[in-house]
Each structure stands twice: as C-alpha cells, then as structure tokens.
C-alpha cells in the first residue's frame, strides 16, 4: 500500500463523483466546463462567430490553465518519485478543498473568469494525479473514455467470456455511475442552494483528504509497531 492509497476504489469513485459535480456546477454557473476542454473549445468557436468575446476569453483561459495544470502535475509526479515521497497526493486533496472553499467567498464572485481558471487548473491536477483504480486506468473528470471502456469490455466478455473483460466492465461501469450521480446531485443542490453548492464540493474534498490521511497514518503506525 505504501504508495497506492490513491488507487483505492473508494478514492477513485468519490473523485469521479466530485468530478461530475465540478463539471455540472461550472457549466450551470459560469457557462464553461471545468474539465471537458473539447466542449470549451467548441463553445469558444461558436461564441467567437457570434462575437461574444468575453465568453470566448473565459473558455480559452480555462483551457490554457487546464494545460498548465497537466504540465505541473507531470512535473510533481517525476519530482516526488525521485525523492521517494509516496503520499504527496494527500496534499493535493487538501489543496482542492481549499480552492473550492475560496471559490465560495464573496470577493471572487464578481470574477467568473478567475473562478473558471481556478477550477480548470485544479481539475487538471486531479485528473493526472489520480488516474488508476487498483491498477486499472480511468478518468475522474469526464466520462467518454469510461463509456468506451464499458462498451468494449462488455462486448469482449459477451464474445469471449474472459474474466478480465468482466472485471474491467464493472470497473468502468461503477466509474460512469459515480460521475452521473455527481452531476445529478450537483444539479439538485444548485437548484436548492445555488452557489453554495461549491461548499459541498469543498467538504467532500476535505472529507476525502482527512479520511485518507487517517488511513495512511494508521498504515504507517502498524508498520512501525511490527518492526
């Protein structure tokens, strides 16, 4: 377990649930996607044609900072691997909780472009840093690739009865369901408490960070006890 707490199924599914919440919340409130940069680029082109330049700028900045987030996370993965620091991803969970708490504060509300940049940057870090569940790749921010995994592995299992294909089918199915539930919950709460929905996202990140910190602490403690 020493460097794979982030591959736990509970972690991956909760991050995917949060990913669905992030994408739907950002689109409902700011008319931009947190992570679906294909959608942002398509919308930016359409809005450029309609000369809605403020909307175009917001989406392009979101895509740019998503790109920067990917580069930064790749650097962190290499850096901490060389330093043999295994639990650095815990700090990312606290960072995400902090970002979404800051987004809820009144002083940022008049600046939607800054908020969408913050969310896109944070989402990119999450996507790259948490990319496997029990060694199986998945995406916790959008679900097209996961849907492909559901369909292809279902076909492979039905035609070959391969046990591995069955395992992968349920792996991707659970991820898709988690994402869809996150979207549904986000839409429901936004209709109920509007912008305060972002505090629910922050709370889920904080819960995940604290629970995994305890999990890692307990694991390390058991190692020292049995030495």
UniProtKB/TrEMBL annotation:
It comes from the Bacteria. Pfam families: DUF1275. The lineage of its organism: Bacteria, Bacillati, Bacillota, Bacilli, Lactobacillales. The keyword Ligase does not apply. This is YoaK family protein. The keyword Lipid metabolism does not apply. Keywords: Membrane, Transmembrane, Transmembrane helix. The chain crosses the membrane at residues 60-80, 87-107, 113-130, 169-192, 198-217.
